[in-house]
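My main concern about presentation is that the manuscript never shows what a single data entry looks like. For the editor and my fellow referees, an illustration may be useful. For illustration, here is how one protein appears when written out as sequence plus structure tokens:

***
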Amino acid sequence: MPQLSILIPTADRQDYAVSSVAAVAIACPDAEIVVSDTSAEEGLEARLMVGPGARQLRYLRPGAGIDVVSNFNRAAEASTGRWLMFIGDDDGVGPGIRSVVDWAERRQVDAVVSYGPRFHAIYYWPGVTSRYFGDGYAARLIVNRCSGKARMLDARAAMLAALRDLGSGLGWMPRAYHGLVSRDVVDRIVEKHGALFGGVSPDIYSATMISEMARKPAVVEWPFVLPGASPKSTAGLGAAQTDRSSLWNNPHIAPFRNLTWDPLIPEFYSPTVVWAYSFKKAVDATGDPSLVPNLARLYARSLLHNRAYAGATLNAMEVWGEKIGWLPARAQVLGELMGEGLRFTGKAMRRLARPTAQGAALQVVPGLPNVEQAYRALENICRDIGSLSLDD
């Protein structure tokens, strides 16, 4: 049994996937690399078998057209490592990941998260465009400051904070996507809930299950994962502000068969909405009545930032108002609208204060053609900025 499995679900992005596998092989030459490929076209396996990482590779071909959640679960079932980390097919892992896993095993930690609301490092592939900065992100590695220190994590508090800020992401919740989780935690989740991944956004759903099940989670503030943003990824589309659409025609949602949408969630596609849907599905599955999503925050965000789909948001608000009463529903949404407006204004002012794509970043490396090169650049930067402080 290998110590670590890196799992890469992929579909129709062969060039990115090949580079992602190569970057993982450089960083983790002893890790198992599981690639689960639902592409419409053949050819990825042949390219991977002649590239870096071929010796470590477990290649799965579950068939074209299955949904992303099923693909993630297939990869998890095929893996054999004592530790799992899922990454996207345009991501890499970062320097020090093997040291983090060794430390976690020594300390009997069972889940490790690298970053919270802000990435420690992120690589933007060539072709990424920004609504505000044009090609200011493209082909660049952006590295932010991080402490390199470890601390224990209150997973329940992190989950409650993320529920209050519904639709913004995971905060500091432990996770399988871009985080490390032990096989023991995964097995207990599968035994209780049937699968690690669910909803329509596997990262959000699984993080909820891990937050419920992990006994000793930790944070290691170090870029041991390297998120990537390619032109068609969620992060890349978010930079360009082109990640909103009708729900049922969206290519992410279309493969889900017999999907019944929650009437309390606005029925359109945006990252905020699909994260909220998956988060609610997960907390519903736990059966814990104290885990209450802040729907008013979701509605305020949707009304302010997705005005073209205001009708869908108002329909969901009507259902919610019938459940809790219209006066308290309107009061909560109004309060959240005011708060969201202030947050948006603050963000705009920070952008004016630092009118470049790099903002307050520690270091930016331009001209990087793929995530392999981004990993090597990050490795050099990490040597300069210090080292992990993993005390036993």
Remarks:
- The CA atoms of residues 121 and 143 lie 4 Å apart.
